[in-house]
Amino acid sequence: MMWTEKGFGLNDYFVLAAVIVSWGIYFLLPKIFSKQMIVFIFLYSLTISSIFDNSFGATPIDLYDIMDGPAYTFMDIPVYLLYPPAGYIFLFLYQKLQIRDHHLVFFIMASTAVSLGTEWIYHKLGVFHYKDGYNMIYSICIYLFVQSLFVLFFRILKPYQYVHGGVGFATTKSRH
Question: Predicted confidence band at 106 (pLDDT cuts at 50, 70, 90)?
Fold first, then answer.
């Protein structure tokens, strides 16, 4: 596996800096979820990003490239390291702000706007390269879907997270 396709450039430095900053934020934030929930957050974030990147960014659809081109390189890996802390921050804010149903649409729309802004920065710095008429505006549907599904899964799993350590999910509801 090559390190990069076109040599180490601005996009590579930016991604490495973004990984350090995003994981730094994750480590500084209070851990308000169980270890099991954090594993879920990380796995969901990695899986959903991989599914969409490999569906829309690879053949036969092939609407964009990550980093320098279509070949997989070592520097593609740090891009995926950006998703777990982003997922944690998203659910951290959802939980800390105590988003209720009547505000959920606004929260997801605001989060989609932040995601779109982040994608625009990544595009401008050469992390994403759009092809065949793909426009960043199409990502809005993906963000709305992914974030809504994330909140749904979180709401389903939240009552079962074991908050005092241990293995697996156990109910936090009263066992009387």
Answer: very high
